[in-house]
Amino acid sequence: MSYQFDFSSITPAAVQVLGHGMAISLQITATAIAFGIIWGTLLAMMRLSSSKPLQWFASGYVNLFRSIPLVMVLLWFFLIVPQLLQKVFHLSASNDLRMISALVAFSLFEAAYYSEIIRAGIKSVARGQLAAAFALGLTYTQTMRLIILPQAFRNMVPLLLTQGIILFQDTSLVYVSALADFFGRAYSIGERDGRIIELLFFAGAVYFAICFSVSLCVKRFQKKAAA
Predict the structure, then answer these.
(1) What are the distances in angstroms from CA 199 to CA 21, 185, 187, 207?
(2) Model-level pTM?
(3) Average of per-residue pLDDT across 88-115
């Protein structure tokens, strides 16, 4: 006997609840992208600097986070960050710090991946431009800020957006900290109504629609940039 799908659980009220979950997923994604690019840029510059200590620190950081599963990082920060914040700011144990834990974990984790993308982008810029900038009397910081990084980021936009899509998909892993993101709320509604398959199918369709649409935008940007 074949399974009979029933999507009656996807009511306007359920969609509203899922909308709140999607807002959390998008907030984590946007925060992790912004912080990840900023911190990732600094890490990339450290790895390309002539200072050995900076190179070792950045290399160790990137290799550490790229070698550990994201779900494990989320668990670590879920267990560590709340306790640390409660001690530093003398917060009550009743304060819900799951969102902050997720934002910190995703931001630091994604920075390692953005660092490698940005480092490759910097290295794609002709080294002659660096020498020319030094010849004009610009400092290393001025050269990176005014000449190298603008060109590097222009070359990296498709990769940065693609990594953002992967990050958005990975936000579903915040279930390990019982944070009610889009996926978590879809699963909860399905479990409540006995329609987990239907809700997970619906959630998958939403993820596909968003990620596929952004992927098409990335491809169009690449075509325009190549033209």
Answers:
(1) 13, 9, 7, 12
(2) 0.86
(3) 80
